[in-house]
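In the current project phase, work has continued on tokenised descriptions of protein folds. One protein thus recorded appears below exactly as we store it.

——
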Amino acid sequence: MFPAPRTLSICLLGRFSLLFWLGLVSLATADTGGASKPASQALGTAIEGLLFEATDSGALPGVIAGVATRDDTVYIGSAGQRDVETSAPMNADTLIAIASMTKPVTTVAVLQLVERGLVDLDAPFSEYLPQLERLQIIDARDESGAWVLRDAPTVPTVRQLLTHTSGYVYEIWNENIFDAVQGGQIPSLFVSEDGLNAPLAFPPGERWEYGIGIDWAGIVVEQISGLALDAYFEEHIFGPLQMGSSGFFVADNQSDRAATIYARTPEGFAPLPRPAPSELGGGGLYSTVGDYLRFLRALLNGGTLDGRRVLKPETVDAMFRNQIGDLRVSPGESQMPPVSNDFDMGFGAPASWGLGFLRHEAATAEGRPAGSVSWAGLYNSYFWIDPENGLCAVVATQVLPFFDQRTVDLLKDIELEVYNHKP
């Protein structure tokens, strides 16, 4: 679907260039449009009303949502426009930059190699990438105010890469790394692939903090498999699951399907340039809501969809179990307000981390039971999987900054309707 030469440009939860987040231009007023195909009339009517309310009011330029069970996709609906300037409607065929929703896909790829005996989750990842056997930690400032680096006591394990306990962090949400980037000591992930070589922010295993560990896990997949990540995903995940609209690259003849990304500004929504292509495990994929629901349904079904298996049931069970012990997922405090707001994906309740996503340790007010899992992408796309009730859902916009309050409110409203009209 997305033929293109391999490009190793940095992706930051979707890897966008400095031009991307600085290049804000004028935005026209959003209209509505789209289609709804509810399997349950009550559920479809309720969600459709929420989607059109969000776009008719100008809260969002465009939005698409989908709900599925283990057996089928029961609803996909949309409202608004994927591109305001051309009036192209948001619809089920729209390509979304899913950013960090790439991470669960990369996690599945790593776990496939674990099942084949090629990767040990509890081995230092330098066993597969020997050039990284000596890492450093950002420690304290010297008398001049510069950051001092010290040797890391251990190398993160593959499991720690997948669970955000490795010490690798993002400059968006880590004050020390952001400060070191601003001071020119560390390359920014926005402008240089050298940013992947940033020091750790804490010793591996000390705490949970969201970061670039899964980017390194994707490089492990490439090293072990001998395939570029896009080729690996196509052969071992997207092909078997019939996700024909998913990939790292948007072909020229498909570019009109891709939704424009907008920045919410005091003056309105400003369109941004499309992110530069990226092929790392932490972000960069494009997909449709329908495709991504197929991926989530495979996990709901123990690793199998329509007779094609991508993981063993016991491996999927491990993905849904707490993998970080007594540690807990912490909220993110933004250092870069144009890119992200502060966020709390546990919505004020305790949360742990499985393999690929956050695990809710308590029920949400809107209906998700404890044991459900979820995560999101930088451009305000969100998903959750509820094994207890056998359902999953995706809500996607293309708006910055992350954890946009209007989008989060819509997500919660849709979740409430899903559990009021449980499919």
The first helix runs from residue 18 to 22. The CA atoms of residues 81 and 89 lie 4 Å apart. The two ends are 32 Å apart (CA to CA). The chain is about 25% helix and 20% strand.
